[in-house]
Amino acid sequence: MILGTTDTPIENPGDEPLPIGNEIQFLLDTGNEYLENPVAEKDILSVFVGIRPLISPEGNQDTKNISREEVILVSNSGLVTMGGGKWSTYRKMAEDLVDKLIQVGNLETRKECSTKSYLYPGAEGYSESLYQEIEKSYQIDTQFAKRLQNYYGAEVFEILGKKPKLLGKGIPYFEEEVLFAAKEEFALGVTDILARRFRILFVDLELAKKMIGPVSAILAKQLKWKDKTKKAEESAAIELIESLRKSYA
After folding, report:
1. Domain of life of the organism in this record (predicted)?
2. What is the CATH number of the domain that holds 169?
């Protein structure tokens, strides 16, 4: 179960923002008004904090009333800047921005933007029942198979191969997933994998902590890390996990 969200202004978010004030207690209290089985801090597996890229409003406007739409600005020098927006509309944002660049730069084009006609990676050949084939092929449970389906779509078999290796006992992730993230998704560190590729760090801190060693070992070999870099990456991941844990424990 996920409880959220809040909408709190923040002055200095830092590289890895943490919950502030009484946000967590507010979510627990509010959630318990609707839950049959009340939850408490001891039930929390992890927390996630994101910073919305809101455009500064005119006047003293509350953040929840500020538009989430993107804004394109053109300076006197011709510099084109985009601000705001959200992940769910990123392709439309890209189209709008490129269209504006073409207009401002008076550029010639052969055809209109075609991003809306392109399939996402893994979409070709995808079906809602794909997880059943994944489950059978790799002899894994349904939850594991559905995660792989959601992550990789129809590309899952190409990414994992015929006999993928688990990261470790009780860890529902394959070594091949780490390699794919490093080779094809430009992941450069342990935290990069756990937080921004697998997202497990924001879902289950204990599992994320178990994954640090195996992930670090694979990345060290793939990225040719020296031992000093490997230890620094592991320490950074542990530090972030403990910071998130302390924010509610």
Report:
1. Bacteria
2. 1.10.8.870
Q: What is the pTM of this model?
A: 0.88
In the chain, the largest separation of any two C-alpha atoms, in whole Å, equals 61
Last residue of a domain, one of 117, 145, 162: 117
Residue 74 lies in a domain: yes
Domain that holds residue 151: 130-246
- The tokens describing 95, both together, are 């189209």
Looking at the DSSP assignment, which residues form a beta bridge with residue 166? 174
If residue 172 lies in a helix (H) or strand (E), which one and from where to where?
Answer: strand 171-174
Residue 27 token pair: 């979510």
d(CA 52, CA 85): 9
Return per-residue pLDDT of the chain as tens, 249 residues.
999 989 888 888 788 888 988 999 999 999 999 999 999 999 999 999 988 888 876 666 666 667 778 899 999 999 999 998 888 899 999 999 999 999 999 999 988 888 989 999 999 999 999 999 999 999 999 999 999 999 999 999 999 999 999 999 999 999 999 999 999 999 999 999 999 999 999 999 999 999 999 999 999 999 999 999 999 999 999 999 999 999 987
Contacts of 173 (CB under 8 A, 6+ apart): 166, 167, 198, 200, 211
Q: How many domains does the chain have?
A: 2
Contacts of 30 (CB under 8 A, 6+ apart): 3
15, two tokens: 């590289």
